[in-house]
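Posting for a labmate who doesn't have an account.
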Amino acid sequence: MTRRILGLVLATAMFSACETEQPAIGCPVQSLVWSATYRPLEASSCPLKAGEQLGILKFSTPSGDEQLSIKPETLVALDERDPARVAYSLGALAKESDSEGFCSASDLDVAEKHAPAVAEQGLPSKDIVYRWSGVRILATPQAPGTQMVAELEYTEDGCTAKYEVWGMWPGDIDCADEDGAPSNALCAAAGTINPDFATVCDPSQLRCVPARRPPSLK
């Protein structure tokens, strides 16, 4: 009888462990449009970088490796004036998350545009360079590839500043109220944003972004 009871207890414990243990989800990345806010990492005389949308995609190579691309709207806007250079950075993406639930992307290419002036349109020349590092995509059942944190060395017209980047998907949620002012309430009420996310309205772009360093959860 004692053996039967012990066996039942062990079986119940094993079943409970299987029921509560979360399976690994790999490194999902939601595509395509993310919103990002830029937080200065150090004092700088450069103009503050405004938040923007990022085009983020995950690719699988024929060899089975994973890659991540980041395409900022600032560079996309210069495509016509500098079509020879691509507007995105591409790097290797891990296949499994780390102990904190993040999937790292490494060795991302430098992305840059060097656009000539267009006098008839009143457009000055523009030189923009993005150098990404420490890119980490949150990959948990609660946030499967929908938040990111990274570091960015951003150069505009010869002035370089460093930022920590907080990003989230979806990145197309407008949070301007009827008067055109930023409204955190609109982010909180947006039905397409994960209700577990802690968000705010970025005043520089009037889009919803993470309220704190990811994981930005309530």
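Reply:
Got it, the structure tokens are right above this. The first strand starts at residue 33 and ends at 40.
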